[in-house]
Write a structure and sequence with these properties.
By secondary structure, this protein is an alpha/beta fold. 48% of the residues lie in helices and 13% in strands. It contains 21 helices and 13 strands.
Length: 510
């Protein structure tokens, strides 16, 4: 029998199979709280996107289970219940009404959102349950067909019915699979999901069915990042892979349908989770906008152990290295192509400079190949290095500037680690990057600038900032001093771990 964990971590597309900032944070929490036992429930999209486990799992991880959403249609489906009828489908329709109106805005007279919310809770208990709704019901029951047809006529008829029908199948199949996972998941005293989305929906199912607390930590805002993904044709097409009649192209109506779907998963997660944690105030406000209850939200900032990076600081050369480094996955959301264009401008002014891309390129191989081709086309292949994963303690002393060109971030650990190692940073004005570099309070801002913040996708501004720091030694050292003070005073790992220990203790007392 599987040992009951204190906390089950619900992980979508991240730890322990993918390296990156969120995975580093998860590993930091597990290793930093050795008296808490954890189980890992990983949810991925396609098996082919993931390889072996990338981390040595600590001893306090007592269970790991892995699931792939591509299996939603491959597993043997539950048989339709002979009792499945109008009541179950009526409640299913009311769930969609709740999702439609729970975010605020105009509502028809007589709509009782709280009553619909209670129905939403009941529906979470119906999926893949005896006398409830199973995937076969959704696929073949006449009442399900009627619901889909009616929804298309009432609001989504900009897309063809065939495309609309297939989109709904692709959306809902994984939800029934997650319901089956919730039926069989290993026991835990509390659940902690590291996003909304599919992992958050699984958390809502587990919270309602097992009556155990659900904790949510959002690093980036899931719905915002999925909106960015959906605006990338490749990602949108992957959602519909395998359709022989695919005529979806880049249909705006279907993109909006997917966005509403992910927003719905977010609201269901917010309804079930307490507390709802973000990394900085800007994201907390976004959670409120997206339907989170204010009294459940709170901010716990990331933290690191500056002592761990002391060797990286002491190994630095007295001279400022003419190296601009990007530490992150080679994926579109990191906007590596803008980094490459930036380096082209930097080396035109500082010929001895180099650009280093430090991070895995296996998550989106096609994008990585495009980045390498861009470097060649700009004539800087000899000035740009793709180094893959590196030990940050060893690589940070070799950097003169850390650069983040991301189009979406939360509160990047890479910036905090660079600060502790004495590396100023140039970052795009996304997430908490501005308060990390410039300070978030008057007392913090008094420490000075730890680098520069510029608009995203602006290679000119990024290049000017990097050139300024590489060329002005006094300014560079002032930024370095502010960076080290800021991370020591405001981003303590001890404070972060203490905050999460209190969150866990509260949950385990229920």
């Amino acid at each position: 029998m599987t040992k009951e964990a204190d906390i089950a971590l619900l992980l979508e597309g991240t730890y322990p199979y993918v390296r990156g900032g969120v995975s580093s944070w998860v590993h930091q929490i597990i290793t930093g709280l050795p008296l808490v036992t954890f189980s890992l429930i990983f949810v991925g999209g396609r098996r082919s996107d993931y390889g072996e486990i990338r981390y040595e799992l600590p001893k306090n991880v007592v269970h790991v289970e892995t699931h792939y959403l591509e299996d939603a249609w491959k597993q043997k489906q539950s048989k339709s219940s002979p009792r499945t009828g109008e009541n179950q489908f009526r409640q299913s329709a009311e769930l969609h009404e709740f999702l439609k109106y729970s975010a605020g805005g105009k509502r028809p007279a007589g709509v009782d959102v709280e009553a619909l919310g209670k129905t939403a809770d009941r529906v979470l208990g119906l999926l893949e349950r005896p006398d409830g709704l199973c995937l076969n019901d959704y696929l073949s029951h006449p009442l399900a067909w009627e619901q889909i047809r009616k929804a298309h006529l009432e609001g989504d008829d900009q897309a063809s019915f065939v495309d609309y029908f297939w989109s709904l199948r692709l959306m809902h199949g994984p939800l029934f699979q997650l319901a089956r996972i919730a039926n069989s998941a290993a026991p835990a005293r509390a659940y902690h999901t590291i996003s909304t989305g599919y992992a958050g929906f699984l958390g809502a199912l587990l919270q309602r069915r097992r009556q155990r607390p659900l904790i949510l930590t959002e690093h980036g805002i899931y719905t915002k990042e999925r909106r960015i993904d959906l605006n990338q044709a490749d990602w949108f097409e992957q959602l519909h892979a395998g359709r022989e009649d695919a005529s979806l192209g880049t249909t705006t109506a279907l993109r909006e349908l997917w966005i509403r779907f992910f927003e719905s998963l977010g609201r269901l997660t917010y309804r079930a989770a307490d507390p709802i944690i973000s990394l900085y105030e800007g994201n907390r406000r976004r959670q409120l906008q997206d339907g989170a209850a204010a009294e459940r939200t709170r901010v716990i900032v990331n933290g690191i152990d500056p002592k761990r990076f002391l060797p990286a600081f002491t190994q630095r050369s007295p001279q400022v290295p003419k190296v601009v480094g990007l530490i992150g996955r080679v994926v579109p959301i990191k906007d590596v192509k803008t980094f490459i264009r930036t380096i082209r401008q930097v080396v035109s002014v500082v010929p001895e400079a180099e650009g280093w891309i430090i991070g895995g390129a296996d998550e989106d191989p096609a994008y990585a190949q495009e980045c390498e081709a861009l470097a060649r086309s700009l004539g800087i292949a000899d000035k740009l290095k793709f180094l893959g994963h590196q030990n940050v303690i060893e690589i940070l002393p070799k950097l003169g500037v850390l650069m983040l060109t991301s189009i979406s971030e939360a509160q990047p650990l890479a910036i905090l680690e660079a600060f502790a190692a004495g590396v100023p940073c140039v970052a795009t004005d996304v997430g908490a990057c501005r308060e990390q570099i410039e300070g978030g309070t008057p007392q913090d801002r008094a420490l000075g600038l730890a680098g520069r913040v510029v608009p995203f996708a602006d290679a000119d501004a990024l290049a000017r900032a990097a050139i300024e720091l590489l060329s002005d030694t006094d300014n560079w050292h002032a930024c370095q001093a502010a960076a080290r003070k800021r991370v020591a005073q405001h981003y303590s790992q001890e404070t972060m771990l203490d905050a999460y220990m209190k969150v866990y203790q509260r949950a385990l007392e229920v």
